[in-house]
Give the backbone structure.
Amino acid sequence: MISDLVSGKADLQKMKCKNDDFFAKYGTEVRINKKVTALNISEKTLTLEDGEKVSYDKLLLATGGKPFVPKMEGQEKDGVFTFTTLSDAQRLAAKLIA
Ligand SMILES: Cc1cc2nc3c(=O)[nH]c(=O)nc-3n(C[C@H](O)[C@H](O)[C@H](O)COP(=O)(O)OP(=O)(O)OC[C@H]3O[C@@H](n4cnc5c(N)ncnc54)[C@H](O)[C@@H]3O)c2cc1C
């Protein structure tokens, strides 16, 4: 929905695939912007970048992927954007408003 965010058809709340009640209902603790930096499979723990250790019973790794951006002339110029992430959309929207 990043094109909808840029065009103003959607806001951040609408972009959430599930609202906060959904996660509370299923006993899920959501942690945003918490990078996992280490995994200890024998201890069944993972470590977050702020040092916090989190234990688990079962672990699903779903880290996605990052698209490759081929080298193109002028790609470093102001006003050239990729269109992949929320922050891309926010940067583009800010540029359109400016
Ligand atoms: C611009 C764009 C438009 C798309 N449009 C559609 C569409 O219309 N329909 C459709 O079906 N699909 C679409 N897709 C594809 C779809 O978004 C992906 O297939 C899907 O999001 C993959 O889900 P995922 O859970 O595997 O990975 P992701 O959604 O990439 O989620 C992985 C998550 O893991 C997190 N992560 C990675 N490493 C760490 C770490 N060390 N610690 C903590 N967290 C970490 C990442 O920050 C990310 O939040 C689109 C993709 C893009 C880029």
Observations:
- The first strand starts at residue 36 and ends at 40.
- The mean pLDDT is 91.
